[in-house]
Structure formats: C-alpha cells, structure tokens
Amino acid sequence: EVQLVQSGAEVKKPGESLKISCKGSGYSFTSYWIGWVRQMPGKGLEWMGIIYPDDSDTRYSPSFQGQVTISADKSISTAYLQWSSLKASDTAMYYCARLDRYCRSTNCHNWFDPWGQGTLVTVSS
Amino acid sequence: DIQMTQSPSSLSASVRDRVTITCRASQNISSYLNWYQQKAGKAPKLLIYDGFSLQSGVPSRFSGSGSGTDFTLTISSLQPEDFAAYYCQQSYSTPFTFGGGTKVEIK
C-alpha cells in the first residue's frame, strides 16, 4: 500500500525554527515528486512546492519562495518542510502528497495521490 | 500563476439531488484539471484527474467534464457521505494552483 506518514502536531513560539517530515512507503520514493500543501484554519488548499527526491530538484510557488525550505533524504524515504523563523501566520495544517502522473507522448498529467494525514502547526506566543 | 475560480463557494442540497460545481481557469489549461474531495478533519482525496478520468474506487456518480478554461464536477445523485468540500486544481504549469473550494452542505 502506498502511504505517506507525517510527523506529529507542533506548538511553537514566533521566531522559532521547525522542520516537519513526511515518510513514504510502498513505492519507489525516488521516482515521484512529493509536494506540500498548506491549509490555514477554515480556508482552502494552497500549493507550496514540490521536490524530486532522487536529485532534490525543487519548485516553489512564488507565494512561498524564501518563506520555507523543502528538502528530502532519499536514504530514509522522507521529505521535509522547514521554517527558520516562524510567524503566527504560519499556523495551519500542512499536508504532503505524492505527485502521481501519466504521460501521453510528451504531455504529462499530474495529480496529488495519496496524501499524508496532515501536520498541524500552531505558532503562538 | 494560473488563477482557478470555483463557484459557488457553498451550496445546500438534499440527498439524491444532482449537484454541479464549476471551475474556471484564468488561461487555457487543456484538460489538466483535477478534482479533490475533503471531508471535515481529513486529508483531501483525489476524485478525478485529467478533467474527466475517475480515480480508482471513486463512485460513478461523480463525473468531470470540460476543457480549455471551463470545467464541471457533477454528482448525479448526492449521497450522505458526499457532504464535504470540493477543490479543483490545475496541473498545466507550476505552481499547480487550487480553486477556492466549494462546500456542499445538507439542506
């Protein structure tokens, strides 16, 4: 079974650093992009960025570029999302998801499946 | 970035109703459109990819249509387990942006 398991909920103070994780199993971790999605309380889904674990090629949404760092350790099939200095506005649920795809000739369709269970990050003084 | 606009943002419907949710892209995205369902307190779940392809295990009452800039998710006969939020997402170019969501509530 393809599965993504995320690290547990975090409560942090503004200015603190944080790294949350997403461990993949049941498939070849280095063959699929992994993405991160933010969901602020009561709001919709926001695409943050993706990483290809085999070579750590990373693409960020302009909205999140410079605000977070996405990384991966292929030796332990784990992707990470980290902050160097948290703000109260970082309070949200964060999901990782595998970017599945199929290609017809040179045209590739991508979608997120499956998703991790989510990591709730609360930033409060 | 490609902007995705969903409508309505919420709707009330009864069991066995036919429900239609629309999604509009700010530019032509061909059929690079996915739909997800998110139940309260849970992670999103893929329903449809490539505009109309039903993900394995998803009931056939769900269907997707459209291409270019205008897309539709239809639930042919709403069931109690379908009350949830629904999101479209374009996968034409990064960032693969989501629509704002549609919350389907019980009438």
C-alpha geometry of chain A = globular
List the quaternary state of the chains: heterodimer
Secondary structure category of chain A: mainly beta
Count of distinct strands of chain A: 11
Beta-strand share of residues of chain A: over 45%
Radius of gyration of chain A: 14 Å
Determine the N-to-C terminus distance of chain B: 36 Å
Strand share of the residues of chain B? over 45%
Largest sheet of chain B, in brief, is: 6 strands, mixed
State the helix count of chain A.
Answer: 0
- In N-to-C order, the SSE pattern of chain A is EEEEEEEEEEE
Please tell me about this protein's structure.
The complex is a heterodimer of chains A (125) and B (107). In chain A, 0% of the residues lie in helices and 58% in strands. Chain A contains no helices and 11 strands. In chain A, strands 2, 4, 5, 6, 9, 10 and 11 form a 7-stranded mixed sheet that branches. Chain A has a 4-stranded antiparallel sheet with strand order 1-3-8-7, with no helix packed on it. In chain A, a hairpin with a 2-residue loop joins β9 (92-104) and β10. The mean pLDDT of chain A is 97. Chain B has no helices and 10 strands. Chain B has strands at residues 4-7, 10-13, 19-25, 33-38, 45-49, 53-54, 62-67, 70-75, 85-90, 102-106. In chain B, β4 and β5 form a beta hairpin. Chain B is globular, with a radius of gyration of 13 Å. The model of chain B has no long low-confidence stretch (mean pLDDT 97). Classes of the chains: A mainly beta (125), B mainly beta (107). At the A-B interface, β5, β9 and β10 of A face β4, β5 and β9 of B.
How is the secondary structure organized here?
The complex is a heterodimer of chains A (125) and B (107).
Chain A: E1 3-6, E2 10-12, E3 18-25, E4 33-39, E5 45-52, E6 57-60, E7 69-73, E8 78-83, E9 92-104, E10 107-115, E11 119-123
Parallel strand pairs in A: 2-11
Antiparallel strand pairs in A: 1-3, 3-8, 4-5, 4-9, 5-6, 7-8, 9-10, 9-11
Chain B: E1 4-7, E2 10-13, E3 19-25, E4 33-38, E5 45-49, E6 53-54, E7 62-67, E8 70-75, E9 85-90, E10 102-106
Parallel strand pairs in B: 2-10
Antiparallel strand pairs in B: 1-3, 3-8, 4-5, 4-9, 5-6, 7-8, 9-10
